[in-house]
Automatic annotation (TrEMBL):
GO biological process: intracellular protein transport; vesicle-mediated transport
Family stated for the protein in its record: Belongs to the adaptor complexes large subunit family.
Gene Ontology cellular component list: AP-1 adaptor complex
Originating organism: Larimichthys crocea (Large yellow croaker)
Name by which UniProt lists this protein: AP-1 complex subunit gamma
InterPro entries assigned: Adaptor_Complx_Large_Subunit, AP1_complex_gsu, ARM-like, ARM-type_fold, Clathrin/coatomer_adapt-like_N, Clathrin_a/b/g-adaptin_app_Ig, Clathrin_app_Ig-like_sf, GAE_dom
PROSITE patterns: GAE
Localization annotation: Cytoplasmic vesicle membrane; Endomembrane system; Golgi apparatus
The keyword Membrane is assigned to this record: yes
Pfam families attached to this UniProt entry: Adaptin_N (PF01602), Alpha_adaptinC2 (PF02883)
PANTHER family, A to Z: ADAPTIN, ALPHA/GAMMA/EPSILON
SMART domains, per the entry: Alpha_adaptinC2
Entry keyword Protein transport: yes
Length: 799
């Protein structure tokens, strides 16, 4: 290929290359020829060569050697060379390169050129790659051009001023008077540039925002002219007069009317006119309507206007375009807390969106449907949500189940309805529920004493039907172990009576123990339930003893430990078995604000729901530390418990010394453990912003080891998803972050997320930690950082 081939032939040669290697050869030969011609002092084809080099740059090949040629061509008096030179500068130069400073003087000269097209080239280049230094030097020239008589130049200068304001915030005051004067222009291009510039100025300076609020009537007048104007071929797009300018004006009005009564009142009539007169059958009209809705909802508008805006979003939900339905649901999600009744009118349409084929639309419809649940519609909404849960995609099941649990806990009309709803979810999506679901349901069942018989019968039937849902099987095993005597009686007023024999119950539990689908935790529940039945039945105790003894050599350590302890109860401590395995007491919440198995930090009264395991109750009047070890030995509560003061000093029928001696022997099963009561770690709030609270508690593990627990909660009215915590410590400190308890924070503190951080500080340096908090709320991503310089209770430990 000849070095002087035209651009079109070079492009043709590159495209006809059959391999990448052949293409690189063509590019290298052409670049070598371009370099050689750049070195010639008298080169008549400079613009031709630079144009070819720019095409090479667009293909991703290095073209940096053409930067100085761009600088020389910009200084050329010929327009054809200036045009290619400025184009090359915009593509090959940026503000980080020193060569960009060499064109500052050329741009300044061209801004004063008599030819408007040369001025336009300089304005476009400065707006594209102007550095902060260039912007400061050339800002007075831009301000001068904003006051020029040529509309073409004023339009370009306004957009260039936007770039300058973004680069150097302090220069905004320089352009404010000129920007205000541009609002009187008739040219739509100039008006568009002026509105964009004023928007940028108002977003960056509150004082400028206050001054421009006086121009709201001018903006309203311009917008009215666009709405009521007739057909204009120059500006018409699908029957809408200049929708681009309308959208920009509406965005500016939204900024000016936010938190200001007077400005909002001045634009209410206009917004109502736009909302009622804009054609919604075309995408262009929907774009204008959507911006109108956002403006109405963001300013201090009248209640009737807000209802009109919500109704427009309701019409969007019926649109065939999924993108329009998606943005409608995002907007409704943001206002459901403030305009709940208005959004409720479109509940049926929103629920229908749950059947949409698009996964993103389904997700938004689910979020909005859960937000619409209230005490008045809990039954009807729950039917729709449960129907959706049975057919929803796998990636939405966890979110749907969590939302149903929160709604049922908050608005349940009765305990029986609450239990039935949770059992329905566990039957449908038991493998996708959160870890705290099992203890929460156990707590609910324990407190509903009049429903024990009904619940155990229903769970027994569910267990016979399906043992693949682990959460459901765990709750069923727990209930059978606790209330197996009610199941065997066969007398239940709430449900159809079913005669169940002792062998039937034990067969069901053995099936769970032997199933390959059962997790180790589920087998633990089933083994403990089997053991508890030894005090509730009479004819099959030997069979239970045989089942328990089999698992004494189980490969799973936890299951083996339980079996060994239960065997010890049968052999050495059989006289205590009835007392140890008696029915669990009512599980009380720590405080009124305690929900979903999360502690609020107050002293434990009975057993924390988040720590419930199938184990024996407290021995009467045992010392507190022995009670802790006993419950730990039998797989009970992991928290230190307070012995009940209402229980007498001895168990019925047993002397006090017998209980004391037997309890001591039982506590010595694992080799005479020396119990030491654990004091709760002090908690300290370290972050509180936008309804998200983060607390920190510490526990010293060794001289240099430390366990930090971060607990996050959400007090807002909307759920938070994708919640993550990241931590950084000094280099000499070793950090290990364990898996968090979850990644979602339900609204109003319904649940919390805990994150364990293990620190090792061998050099005893001053301990500091920086935590980054990231989450999504109402469709927006948030991120913040908090510095932690002190750790509670560790000042004396040298950390």
């Amino acid at each position: 290929m000849s070095p002087s081939v035209p651009l079109q032939e070079m492009i043709r040669a590159i495209r006809s290359a059959r391999t990448q290697c052949e293409e690189r050869g063509v590019i290298q030969r052409e670049c070598a020829a371009i370099r050689a011609q750049f070195r010639q002092s008298d080169n008549g084809g400079r613009s031709h060569n630079l144009a070819k080099l720019l095409y090479v740059h667009m293909l991703g090949y290095p073209a940096h050697f053409g930067q100085m040629e761009c600088v020389r061509m910009i200084a050329s008096p010929r327009y054809s060379e200036k045009r290619v030179g400025y184009l090359g500068a915009m593509m090959l130069l940026d503000e980080k390169q020193d060569a960009s400073l060499l064109i500052t003087n050329s741009i300044k000269n061209d801004l004063s050129h008599s030819n408007q097209y040369v001025q336009s080239l300089a304005l476009c280049t400065l707006a594209c790659m102007g550095s902060a230094e260039m912007c400061r030097d050339l800002a007075p020239e831009i301000d001068r051009l904003l006051r020029a008589s040529n509309s073409y130049i004023k339009k370009k200068a306004a957009l260039c001023a936007v770039h300058i304001v973004r680069k150097v915030h302090d220069l905004g005051e320089l352009f404010a008077p000129a920007a205000r004067s541009l609002l009187t222009e008739k040219n739509h291009g100039v008006l568009h540039g002026a509105v964009v510039l004023i928007t940028e100025l108002c977003e960056r300076n509150p004082e400028t925002l206050e001054r421009f609020r006086k121009n709201v009537p001018d903006l309203v007048q311009i917008m009215k002219g666009l709405v009521i104007s007739g057909y204009s071929p120059e500006h018409d797009v699908a029957g809408i007069s200049d929708p681009f300018l309308q959208v920009r004006i509406l965005r500016l009005l939204r900024i000016l009317g936010r938190n200001n009564e007077a400005a909002s009142d001045a634009m209410n009539d206009l917004l109502a006119q736009v909302a009622t007169n804009t054609d919604s059958t075309k995408t262009v009209g929907n774009a204008v309507l959507y911006e109108t809705v956002l403006t109405v909802l963001d300013i201090k508008s009248e209640s009737g206007l807000r209802v009109l805006a919500v109704n427009i979003l309701g019409r969007f939900l019926l649109n065939n375009d999924r993108n329009i339905r998606y943005i409608a649901m995002i907007s409704l999600q943001k206002i459901v807390g403030t305009d709940h009744n208005a959004v409720q009118r479109h509940r049926g349409t929103i629920v229908d969106c749950l059947k949409d084929q698009d996964a993103s639309v389904k997700r938004r419809a689910l979020d909005l449907s859960l937000a619409l649940v209230s005490a008045s519609n809990i039954r009807s909404m729950m039917k729709e949500l449960l129907l959706f849960l049975s057919s929803c995609p796998l990636e939405l099941r966890s979110q749907a189940a969590s939302g149903i649990f929160n709604a049922a806990e908050r608005y349940a009309p009765s305990q029986r309805w609450h239990i039935d709803t949770i059992l329905h979810v566990l039957t449908t999506a038991g493998g996708d529920v959160r870890d705290e679901t099992v203890p929460n349901l156990i707590q609910l069942i324990t407190n509903a004493s009049e429903l024990h018989c009904y619940t155990v019968h229903k769970l027994y039937r569910a267990l016979l039907t399906d043992i693949s849902q682990q959460s459901l099987v765990q709750v069923a095993c727990w209930c059978i172990g606790e209330y197996g005597d009610l199941l065997l009686r066969g007398e239940c007023q709430e449900t159809e009576a079913v005669q169940v024999s002792e062998d039937d119950v034990l067969d069901a539990l053995e099936t769970v123990l032997q199933s390959h689908m059962s997790s180790p935790a589920t087998r633990g529940f089933a083994l403990t339930a089997t053991m508890k039945l030894s005090t509730r039945i009479t004819d099959n105790v030997d069979r239970i003893r045989s089942i328990v003894s089999i698992y004494g050599s189980c490969i799973d350590v936890e299951l083996q430990q339980r079996a060994v302890e239960y065997n010890a109860l049968f052999k050495k401590y059989d006289h205590m078995r009835a007392a140890v395995l008696e029915r669990m007491p009512v599980i009380e919440k720590n405080s009124p604000g305690h929900t979903n198995g999360e502690s609020t930090g107050e002293p434990v009264k009975d057993i924390q729901p988040a720590k419930v395991k199938q184990g024996g109750p407290l021995l009467p009047q045992q010392p507190a530390n022995q009670v802790c070890d006993l419950l730990d030995l039998l797989g009970g509560s992991e928290e230190p418990l307070q012995p009940s003061p209402a229980v007498a000093g001895t168990a019925p029928g047993l002397p006090a010394n017998t209980i004391s001696q037997a309890g001591g022997d039982l506590l010595d099963l694992l080799g005479g453990l020396e119990p030491a009561p654990l004091a709760p770690a002090p908690a300290m709030p370290v972050y509180e912003k936008d309804g998200v609270t983060l607390t920190l508690s510490c526990e010293k593990q060794s001289d240099s080891g430390l366990t930090v627990t971060l607990t996050a909660s959400n007090s807002t009215d909307s759920d938070i998803s994708s919640f993550t915590l990241q931590a950084a410590v000094p280099k000499s400190v070793q950090l290990h972050m364990k898996a968090p308890s979850g990644d979602s924070l339900p609204a109003r503190g319904a649940a919390k997320v805990t994150q364990m951080v293990v620190l090792n500080n061998p050099n005893k340096v001053n301990l500091k930690m920086r935590v980054r908090i990231s989450y999504n709320s109402q469709g927006s991503a948030f991120q913040d950082t908090v510095q932690i310089d002190s750790f509670p209770g560790l000042s004396a430990a040298g950390h």
